[in-house]
Write a structure and sequence with these properties.
23% of the residues are buried. The protein has a 5-stranded mixed beta sheet, with no helix packed on it. The chain has a 4-stranded antiparallel beta sheet with strand order 1-9-4-5, with no helix packed on it. It has 6 helices and 11 strands. A hairpin with a 5-residue loop joins strand 4 and strand 5. The protein is of the alpha+beta class. The protein folds into 2 domains: 125 residues, no CATH class; 116 residues, no CATH class.
């Protein structure tokens, strides 16, 4: 279940106004809220890596891993990779920008890559580092086949028909062997969170009126809730308060909010 964006904003304003510390505008809240959500989201992976280094005999190990997996579940999706042969000597697949449900997504981390062959079998591709990816192709005994495909995952600049870079923009691409595979590549991946938006209209006296309708990108109206797990609501509020203290130049808010956020983090880990 998502965290209501209006609940968070009103809580933040209530705390700031109670202490007569200043004001956080909707635009500032939306900017800070986006950063806070991304900070917490990225911390999940740091926590997951730490947990995976803990001896699995730890009785709480499975619960902690399951808890993190539950928080990440909403960001997991899948879609079809797109074949690109603009340079015939160096074809590659680009990652989906639209998932299997038709939603536009912002890619974050790659998961499993699968090839669906002509008989309908799903074959997982083996990810290899650059040197190994090319070296195994030198021998007919080790080179990749459609039954045992491999891929190399790298960042590359956009290229023209001659294979030369046309700008410095990097994109995540997959080079697949054998190169006879030109379609039917499906990827599981984790997308980035959608930025929260506290939408509003302005009344006659300039006051902000919350617009709780679902966000309409064409009109730029409506709101988007935080996508984080509901258990993160207090953490979100505290971290926004910390940023708010910087914006309104009140170090006491920053200090108190960070102390409480750190306390929340310790409690979750314990």
């Amino acid at each position: 279940m998502a965290i209501n964006v209006n609940t968070v904003y009103q809580t933040v304003l209530s705390i700031i106004n109670k202490e007569q510390r200043g004001y956080l505008t909707p635009a500032e809240f939306n900017t800070v809220g986006t950063q806070v959500q991304l900070d917490i989201f990225e911390k999940y992976f740091e926590d997951l890596n730490q947990q995976l280094r803990v001896p699995q005999a730890d009785i709480d190990y499975a619960d902690r891993i399951m808890n993190l997996d539950e928080k990440l579940a909403v960001f997991k999706t899948f879609g079809s990779a797109v074949y690109n042969s603009i340079n015939p000597d160096l074809p590659y697949f680009t990652l989906p920008t639209v998932d299997a449900y038709g939603a536009t997504v912002d890619f974050y981390r790659l998961g499993t890559v699968v090839y669906k062959d002509s008989t309908g079998n799903q074959i997982e591709l083996q990810r290899l580092p650059r040197t190994e990816f090319y070296n195994i192709e030198r021998s007919p005994l080790t080179k990749a086949t459609k039954s045992f495909p491999t891929y190399l995952y790298e960042n590359r600049g956009n290229v023209n028909t001659a294979g030369s870079a046309i700008n410095s923009h990097l994109q995540n691409v997959m080079f697949v062997n054998p190169t006879s595979i030109t379609s039917n590549i499906e990827v599981d991946y984790i997308r980035k969170p959608i930025s929260p938006i506290w939408g509003f209209s302005t009344a006659a006296r300039g006051q902000y009126i919350f617009n709780g309708n679902y966000y309409n990108p064409s009109l730029g109206t409506g709101s988007i809730n935080f996508e984080l797990h509901e258990s993160e609501q207090v953490n979100v509020v505290l971290r926004i308060l910390a940023y708010a203290g910087i914006i309104i130049q009140d170090p006491s808010i920053v200090q108190v909010a960070l102390q409480q956020a750190q306390g929340q983090e310790v409690n979750k880990k314990s």
